[in-house]
């Protein structure tokens, strides 16, 4: 029997993920919020649906969308004044909609914004009292999924997404300068995001929480200087050098590497593929 995967969110990460899962032999359904995006999904071989959480579930034929073996949730909190309440309300609506469906496995794309800046390496158990409202919203959503009945959830906490059109050169062309040069960076290439999700599905690694971040953490000044050299741009100006260093965190993905046996395609963000 062919395994069906439904992707709730087919944007910058979700669409290429859907293409890769099709290559691996899955049947893939994908959701967008506008019918205008249907042709791109159909061209890729993904069965398109219009699904929204506003925060109540809306859309066309959600019962058919949730008629799936695996559900991947890939939508960030909306930037709005009530971001925490709204995002958790979205997930309560979602969990209610999943009751009585065939969904038995859920994978949530979360973020390392759930961690406070602890001035050290952080692991999965350190997610508490995040400063960022987006982190508070995601931590609340994670808790709702963990407490739900009827399916097992694995949570992947991705750090800053890079690769393809998300390159430091583009940032430098817009600004020509950067701040907080002594900050260690937490970054992950999109190819590794897709590779890690694929491994969770292949290994059936359900009921887990994993950090997902490249194992090397260059300083911000190293990252942008290397980008300028690579692209032939003028060396960027570093601002705020006389200011006190900001608090930092270093995302530790040791558990992911050990549990899944995963080896990063881009372990060093300084060696960003073209």
TrEMBL record:
Domain of life: Bacteria
GO CC annotation: cytoplasm
UniProt cross-references to CDD domains, sorted A to Z: SDR_a4 (cd05266)
Record GO terms (molecular function): aldehyde dehydrogenase (NAD+) activity
Name of the protein in its database record: SDR family oxidoreductase
Source taxonomy: Bacteria, Pseudomonadati, Chlorobiota, Chlorobiia, Chlorobiales
């Amino acid at each position: 029997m062919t395994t069906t995967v439904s992707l709730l969110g087919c944007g910058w990460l979700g669409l290429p993920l859907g293409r890769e899962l099709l290559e691996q032999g899955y049947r893939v359904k994908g959701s967008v919020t506008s019918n205008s995006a249907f042709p791109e999904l159909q061209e890729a071989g993904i069965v398109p649906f219009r699904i929204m959480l506003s925060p109540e579930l809306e859309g066309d034929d959600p019962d058919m969308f949730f008629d799936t073996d695996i559900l991947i949730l890939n939508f960030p909190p909306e930037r709005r004044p009530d971001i925490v309440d709204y995002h958790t309300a979205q997930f309560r609506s979602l969990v209610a909609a999943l009751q009585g469906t065939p969904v038995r496995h859920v994978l949530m794309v979360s973020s390392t914004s759930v961690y406070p800046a602890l001035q050290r390496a952080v692991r999965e158990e350190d997610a508490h009292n995040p400063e960022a409202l987006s982190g508070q919203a995601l931590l609340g959503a994670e808790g709702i999924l963990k407490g739900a009945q009827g399916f097992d959830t694995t949570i992947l906490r991705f750090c800053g997404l890079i690769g393809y059109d998300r390159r430091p050169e583009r940032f430098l062309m817009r600004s020509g300068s950067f701040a907080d040069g002594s900050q260690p960076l937490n970054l992950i290439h999109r190819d590794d995001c897709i590779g890690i999700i694929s491994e969770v599905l292949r290994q059936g690694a359900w009921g887990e929480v994993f950090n997902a971040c490249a194992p090397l953490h260059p300083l911000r000044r190293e990252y942008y200087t290397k980008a300028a050299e690579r692209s032939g741009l003028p060396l960027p100006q570093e601002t705020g050098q006389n200011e006190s260093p900001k608090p930092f965190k270093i995302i530790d993905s040791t558990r992911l590497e050990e549990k899944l046996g995963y080896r990063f395609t881009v372990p060093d963000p300084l060696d960003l593929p073209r």
